[in-house]
Design goal:
- The chain is mainly alpha-helical and 78 residues long.
- The chain has a single domain, classed as Arc Repressor Mutant, subunit A.
- It is 54% helix and 8% strand.
- It contains 4 helices and 2 strands.
- A two-stranded antiparallel ribbon has the order 1-2.
- The radius of gyration is 13 Å and the shape is globular.
Length: 78
Amino acid sequence: MLATQIEQDLLNLYGSPILNTSQLQRALNYRSIAAVKQAIQRQTLPIPIFRLPNRRGWFAFVKDVGVFLAAQAFKKED
């Protein structure tokens, strides 16, 4: 399954099941961290994000990123 492969690749690349804002920027191919932060502010980031206690910034699960990217690969454009 493509989502599982993407998840495994991200786990190997980042070494963690959780991605920070900088890693999300690279994984989702945003132009900058500012663009990711703007998507968060506008609530248009395509994956669920969350905060961690005593940590700055936003985080996302590698699994959610993998599922989203796999879904986009098979999405048909009208």
